[in-house]
Amino acid sequence: MRVLVIGASKGIGLETIRQALAAGYDVRALARSATSINLSDAKLKKVQGDALNQQDVEAALAGVDAVIVTLGVGLGDLFKPVHLFSRHFCGKLLHCRSHPHRPHRRPARGILRPGTDLG
Fold first, then answer.
1. Which of 12, 55, 56, 60 has the largest CB neighbor count within 10 A?
2. Between vectors from CA 28 to CA 27 and to CA 31, what angle results, nearest 5°?
3. Are 51 and 71 in contact, with CB atoms under 8 Å apart?
4. Domains of the chain by range and CATH?
């Protein structure tokens, strides 16, 4: 199973990559600073891109079975309006033309094990 981690360069995203690799997943990591991801694994593909750019997201979605979004904002940005998680952004992600599957809305409960039914 191949998972895409969006917002993968540090913090929760980086830990998500570590856990997914440890669980045996193939991981595609999308981040603006993908080259700074300080992990090396044959099952890890680092993809330079912007989660707010639809073409970057569509390209990253090709061939993945699940998406984990770990985007965040810096501490200084928390004291002004945050639009990162707006309906507009979520709609762009969930309705990309290259990802024909019905979006799965599940609460985050840790990393899924290979073979887990996402339906």
1. 60
2. 130
3. yes
4. 2-94 (3.40.50.720)
